[in-house]
UniProtKB/TrEMBL annotation:
This is Permease. Pfam families: ArsP_1. Coiled coil: none annotated. The chain crosses the membrane at residues 42-64, 85-115, 135-160, 210-230, 242-261, 273-297, 303-327. It is a multi-pass membrane protein. GO terms for cellular component: plasma membrane.
Amino acid sequence: MNVFAWMNDQLLRMQWLSELVTSRVQAVGLDPASRIGGSVQFFVYDVIKIFILLSVLIFAISYVQSYFPPERTRRILGGRSGIGANILGALLGTITPFCSCSSIPLFIGFTAAGLPLGVTFSFLISSPLVDMASVILLASIFSWPIALAYVGVGLLVAVIGGTIIGKLGMEDQVAGFVRNVPVTDAEETLTRAERVVFARDQVMEIVRKVWPYVLIGVGIGAAIHNWVPAETIGALLGQDKWWAVPVATLVGIPMYADIFGTLPIAEALVGKGVGLGTVLAFMMAVTALSLPSLILLKRVVKLPLLATFTGVVTVGILIIGFAFNALTTWFI
């Protein structure tokens, strides 16, 4: 246990980095306990930590992902039905791209290949909401129980949401052109060296996409952590406020980011006393229901199906938010 605790503190939380940044902040004449010094320390430490973890995790996960191209994923899911297929679709979503917009082309391919609509939606919900990197990053900022709980409830939303959509029989609500998209069964076999190159390229591509959101998220987190009084945050989003979870969900929907951009904000909010359920609701709304992804999804599904998808996921997020606020003491 001592070895695990040391690894968690030094490799994930990077306490050595926190101490190094704190000493550098002091060296330039800033007090880390002051608002300005604390903001600089929070920003520099979180940015460096997130990008180090992000690069390592994306490389490792992308290497594994190279064994699961869309063609193989379609074959794994093809011919399956029922709750088991939804669970498998949600699990496969955890090793695919990191934002909802990049998941939609795969959703189109799965639908064109004839996969059940409910299974494709379980995949579509899970892919941006839960990924293997999120487990490590959440653990690095909060704790392993919180990280595992987030992944568990994310998969639960994906499985239940996809199951409900599948039971409603809304196949006719998919845009006609999606069914006519050509599907190839060709699967490229990569050598080990090619998989390394693929993983490296994925690191470069994803970091290039997410770095602005990480900087914005860390900046907002630093501002909340050091400049916004806890009393103000508590008055708006305190655990005793019934509206905290719905407000956090509504605030998250217009944003476009992924879990990497929302984590610093979530860290700062929890530090100010905001309920864990409220923070999780915000993160899930940003990643699963961002407005840009809904606009893109509207191009491939009709309005009734889009409204059903949005409603089912929103209700799931609200239930999870209220439940986690009631059970916060189990995790913190």
